Amino acid sequence: MATVAAPEIEALGRSLAGPRFDEYSGLALGRAYDEFVARRRTPLAALELSVNDRPYPTVYAALADPTADFTVGELRFVPPFASDPAWEYVPRTDRIVFSADGAAEIHPAGGGAPRRAMARVLLREHFLPRSRLEEERAAAGGLRVQLPTRVGTLAQGMTICRAQPVLPFSVALLLYLPEERTRLEIDLVRSTLLADPRAGRLPVARRVPRPARLAWAVDRVLGQGDLSLTATRALEVLVESNGLSSIELAHIFGGVRELIDSALQGLVAQRLVTVDHRTGTYRARLEAFLPDAASSVRPDESPYATDPTLRTSVQELLAAADARASCPLCGRPLPPGPSSILCADCAALVAGA
């Protein structure tokens, strides 16, 4: 599989950023590029991309073409599929066809009827060209360059990359199906589909599928770009589990355990994750991603008749209660050895509704 060379990406950056891409940006891009390609990843399939029925060798070639608007396109997975443990967590797919309305048709490998999903792209590792002057101003507390969002349709993502500009190294393709969300990790430098980091390290039986609505709420938080890459990946894995220890997460992602511990403590501080100090188990606070029920209730209405959390699926309520020993509706701590997933007051409201 061919790897896009750093000079090609640098040439794209200079054409998009203009005078902002100075010698300082070139050196910084080189360091970021070397760091990215040095990481070991498990490739699953090579990718072939076409935009508006025109094939492109790489995403960078399509970004360099101003006529490629990415409203419609197709992504093909080249090699035949074999039974391989590396494919755990990743659905075997022959191709994905993107529509102008942000939807996509997922064609399974080996034939069969395609499945329709909503497709979004989450920007992962990337390089944001900044001149030395911009970097010095930011370091002195000046205005920092902020991306409007890191999650959107394929067309929105490419528009942001050109306008900011941003040089993407990897992205996550998010496919929202009626019952769940599927995430595909793509290395743009090597044009490959990557294995899920849990493959071969965490049994698939420990994965807990989440409804697409909850997955979208989590992805919107990740798209804000306030979390580090390590914290983002740890949170994604925790959301799709009933709890993991820092040792298990360090085994999944590799590297130094202290880095995982630091990322987890940051998630705990932001109230996105809780930790059971008795067992060392970290769990995602699923209720933290649910919409604020209080803002949707008018004073002249019953507080439980329009509370959207009362319409949450039973699976979500169970998962939220399992995430921490608290009521998933109001957040109050539950007494030791609770016999219900709800506190007494919320249980009365639900019964009355």
Number of domains: 2
The low-confidence parts are: 293-324
Mean pLDDT level:
83
Query: Main sheet, how many strands, which sense, barrel?
Result: 8 strands, antiparallel, barrel
How helix-rich are the residues, as a percent range?
A: 25-40%
Give me the secondary-structure category: alpha+beta
Radius of gyration: 22 Å
What is the H/E string?
HHEEHEEEEEHEHEEEEHHEHHEEHH
Strand content: 15-25%
Query: What is the helix tally?
Result: 11
Query: How far do the termini sit from each other?
Result: 59 Å
Shape: globular
With strands numbered from the N-terminus, the spatial order across the biggest sheet is 1-3-4-5-6-10-11-12
Number of strands: 15
How would you portray this structure in words?
With 353 residues, the protein is α+β, with helices and mostly antiparallel strands. The chain folds into two domains: 1-195, no CATH class; 290-352, no CATH class. The protein is 33% helix and 20% strand. The chain has helices at residues 6-17, 23-38, 59-64, 132-139, 154-163, 212-223, 229-239, 246-253, 257-269, 314-323, 344-352; strands at 43-51, 54-56, 73-77, 93-98, 103-108, 115-123, 126-127, 151-152, 167-168, 170-176, 181-187, 192-194, 244-245, 273-276, 281-284. The longest helix is centred in the N-terminal third of the chain and has 16 residues, at 23-38.
